[in-house]
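The material for today's practical consists of a large collection of protein records. There is nothing in a record beyond a sequence line and a structure line. Backbone structure tokens are a discrete shorthand for how the chain folds in space. Nothing more is needed to start thinking about how sequence determines fold. As an example, a complete record with its sequence and its structure tokens follows.
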Amino acid sequence: MVSRRRSSEEGHRRKFLAVIDDTPECERAMRYAGMRARNSGGGLVLVYVIQSGDFQHWLGVEEIMRAEAMEEAESTLANAAEKMRTLLGIDPETRIRQGSTAEEIHAVIEEDQDIAILVLAAGSAKDGPGPLVSSIAGRGAAFPIPVTVIPDALSDEEIDALS
């Protein structure tokens, strides 16, 4: 159960949430979410989730790996945010979380009652559309807000026309 969305109330605005990661399709989701935010007077939230399971080493090595992962997350999010500012003229909010991607997305949605739509992009790899897109088809990680799934084969022009 998710808390009540407040994006339609006075003083609030609808926000689109896009997950930033190292997959090529995340660019498609970010562009669509950014265009929808700009075209509707909404906001854009970009979240990067550092997988906590990646740090199963000795304490010193674990700390170094966490620091490197945080640097990578900060750099990736800064580049994504700059792209949205340059391309679309919008200034996204950014969030870095650590843990299970689905759980952290749920947490971000719960914390920000203005987030009304999650935008994901499907991959075209032969092993499936990606874990997040696959999870919405199952019951375990279904998200508590509407989810828009963008095919990764859409061109920038096609995304812009649909936004």
